[in-house]
Amino acid sequence: MTIRSTIQDTILQVASELNKSMPPLDDDLPLLDSGLDSLGLAVVVARLEDVLGVDPFRDGVDGAFPVTLGDFIRFYDNAAK
Amino acid sequence: MTMQQNSRKSLRCLLAASGTGPNRFLFDGTTRVDLQAPPEIAARRGTLDHMRDRSVLLALDSQLDCAVALIELDGIARRVVICPPDLPPNHISSVLDGCEVDTVICDRMLPEYSGRNILHPSKLTESQTIRHDGCRLTEWTLFTSGTTGQPKTVVHSLESLSGHLPAGSPSGTVPVWSTFYDIRRYGGLQMLLRALVGGGSLVLSNPHESPGAFLSRAGACGVTHILGTPSHWRRALMTGEAGKISPVYIRLSGEVADQTILDRLREMYPHATIAHAFASTEAGVAFEVQDGQSGFPANLVDSVGSETELRVIDSSLRIRSPRLAKRYLSGSTSGLMDEHGFIDTGDIVELRGDRYYFVGRKEGVINIGGQKVHPEEVEAVINRHPGVELSFVKSRRSPITGAIIAAEVVMKSQVVPACRGSLPTQAAGLTNLIEEILVMCRAALPAHKVPATIRIVPALDIAPSGKLARPRA
User: Fold this and answer.
1) B433 and B338 share a domain?
2) Is this structure's pTM higher than 0.90?
3) Does B243 touch chain A (CB under 8 A)?
């Protein structure tokens, strides 16, 4: 599984657990205005850490927090390098 | 008969004295309440005569209705009990009895209210011509979380809730306050009072609005002072709309502010004063730090002569201040203060160099985006699953909400064989168990108390006392 597909699967899984419907997961989708609240995003980040072994938020944020799904995936891609 | 302090000024009087006018307002995105000129304010009475010396429960869907009710009732009612938006319905009866409620102001009738006076909020502002002469000391009762999930109520007054916020804009213009907090909780209520008493306006959040839309609206209203938890601010910076506001003052409270969020806010708002404050429902705002560094200077502790005094005893922060809550009203038999008048905050601090840093909570209380969770109440729900032998709920650090709930579960031995077999079968069995436990938690607990992750483990550490070993969270 790629980082991208892991992230997408995790988001969909958490959204379904929280009974939130998600729009299509395009790269320009804003992370927080689209269905997941910050609690939902916190769950996604924790589960991704368990699967991918990285938490790019904790391991040092250089520059801005991610706003869109595309930013978020790049955030993990960079951390995994 | 009643405790009257004739020198006391009610919220209504203080509002009138702060200079009302057409440029002052409360706005929740749907409704705008103008803080009108004093003669009109003084003229909207009537129903209030029936509120004299009552203990009034405010169970309102709208923050704005709650704000208006508080303006009307302070100085008139004996007690106002402010329900938070998520008060579980099964606690209503004990709250009504514990707070001796005789009048309920609500937009929806519940069976538990029967036998008490019921009033719709719109009745409070019907035009009447009786002067608001109330000057009695009204008790303001707020909710805080209890160990068993049973809410505790703490008693404040207008005086203990006001204060310790900057007075207004340096330019002398009308300050426009805003907050991500709900005004029915401590942090938001302080904002409301600061805006009302300090000559300002307030932009309220709205549960039907996205964080980005809220920021846009606050920006359009010209917000100058805005407050929230570090989690609120992380969320704000991730909306892409954070540039819509240009406040002069930003405050973070309710959770530990880490260096990352302070640095990111400094970059986004280079000209704003960025403060982080220590506050709790019991202790009020104790102190504020403005140097852009996390933690607080060690010289604040044991310093003499300041209004708020801090002590560190057994690594736990204690506070004495004139803004401490008076007492618990219901839900707790323990005293609020020690023999010297200090409250133990339960926050564990560590001295590094000349600064103290928050490192966790005594008793393992978990702070999720500013809302406290006691691990025991979550464990109690997990343990209801017939296959669960033992569970352990702990805090796990989260860069988004400060902390999240993580659970470790030991299954009963007869359940485990069902999860044996080939690896895929075993994994599927465990996944089903975890899913069942999560479903139970979601049915019984508010969202922030549901474990984010559940791990099935073979055993848990038991301390020599026979209790689960709970490392400091």
Assistant:
1) no
2) no
3) no
